């Protein structure tokens, strides 16, 4: 995910289901997604996010990381990283309806400017 073997501007749509949280360098993942998308291309991502930052002791737990827990970042950070990569129209379209869940699945959509 951090080094996609695809040409620049070669993909119309990227769909991802709960994998970005597994990547240590999420900025690089979003940058690569942006790079390979054609102008006007879209992303739809379902991933695990948190309401509060994950404690460092959890981040260091590789079993929790592999279980899609420790690599999760806050929803706000997730959106900010997508925007920083260049995506526009970044929106959370589902997830997090139960405010008592500290970790939850959320669906994000965005596009590369045309």
- Give the N-terminus to C-terminus distance in angstroms: 23 Å
- Give the number of domains: 1
Going by CATH, the homologous superfamily would be Vaccinia Virus protein VP39
pLDDT averaged over residues: 95
Q: Return the structural class.
A: alpha/beta
Radius of gyration: 14 Å
- Helicity range: 25-40%
Question: What would you note in describing this structure?
Answer:
With 114 residues, the protein is an alpha/beta fold. Helix 1 packs across helix 4. The chain has four helices and five strands; from the N terminus they run E-H-E-H-H-E-H-E-E. The model has no long low-confidence stretch (mean pLDDT 95). A hairpin with a 7-residue loop joins strand 4 and strand 5. The two termini are 23 Å apart. Strands 1, 2, 3, 4 and 5 form a five-stranded mixed sheet that branches. It has one domain: Vaccinia Virus protein VP39 (Rossmann fold).
What does the secondary structure layout of this molecule look like, with pairings?
Layout: E1 11-17, H1 26-36, E2 37-50, H2 56-59, H3 62-66, E3 73-74, H4 75-85, E4 88-95, E5 103-111
Parallel strand pairs: 1-2, 2-3
Antiparallel strand pairs: 2-5, 4-5
Helix pairs in contact: 1-4
Features:
114 residues; alpha/beta; Rossmann fold; 27% helix; globular
Offer a concise description of the structure.
The chain is an alpha/beta fold.
């Amino acid at each position: 995910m951090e080094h996609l073997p695809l040409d620049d501007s070669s993909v119309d749509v990227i769909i991802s289901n709960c994998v970005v949280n597994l990547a240590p360098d999420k900025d690089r993942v979003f940058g690569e997604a942006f790079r390979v998308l054609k102008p006007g291309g879209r992303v739809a991502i379902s991933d695990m996010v948190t309401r509060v930052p994950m404690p460092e002791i959890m981040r260091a737990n590789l079993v929790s990381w592999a279980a899609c827990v420790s690599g999760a970042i806050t929803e706000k950070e997730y959106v900010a990283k997508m925007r920083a990569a260049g995506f526009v129209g970044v929106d959370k379209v589902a997830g997090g309806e139960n405010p008592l869940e500290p970790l939850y699945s959320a669906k994000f959509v965005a596009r590369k400017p045309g």
